[in-house]
């Protein structure tokens, strides 16, 4: 196994889990921008990412999945909160179900 093979095998470091992956998504690449990865990271995580920092700008598929799950969860909860707020103003009764 030559050094080129090893370089291919090592792959890219994921910015979020710091593991090496052969398949990663570039945060500022076409897909990363389409998926709003940098916006989601800055919204849901406490880490700052910018194009100018010297750290990796790639994330693995596992972390992307986790980020998307978090996004969906927040969307569901925000929608629920808005719905409940709307309901509260209408003063509906909700003790009929059991
Ligand atoms: Zn990762």
Automatic annotation (TrEMBL):
PROSITE patterns recorded: ZAD
PANTHER family according to UniProt: BCDNA.LD26519-RELATED (PTHR39942)
Domain called ZAD: residue spans: 12-87
Name used for this protein in its record: ZAD domain-containing protein
Record keywords: Metal-binding, Zinc, Zinc-finger
GO molecular function, one term: zinc ion binding
Pfam families per the UniProt record, alphabetical: zf-AD (PF07776)
SMART domains on file: zf-AD
Keyword Transcription regulation: no
Presence of the UniProt keyword S-adenosyl-L-methionine in the record: no
Organism: Bombyx mori
Lineage: Eukaryota, Metazoa, Ecdysozoa, Arthropoda, Hexapoda
């Amino acid at each position: 196994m030559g050094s080129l093979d090893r370089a291919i095998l090592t792959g890219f470091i994921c910015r979020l889990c710091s593991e090496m992956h052969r398949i990663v998504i570039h945060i500022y690449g076409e897909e990363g921008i389409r998926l709003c990865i940098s916006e989601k990271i800055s919204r849901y995580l406490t880490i700052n990412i910018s194009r100018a920092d010297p750290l990796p700008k790639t994330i693995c598929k596992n972390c992307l999945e986790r980020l998307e799950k978090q996004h969906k969860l927040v969307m569901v909860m925000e929608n629920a909160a808005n719905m409940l707020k709307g309901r509260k103003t209408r003063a509906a009764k909700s003790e009929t179900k059991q």
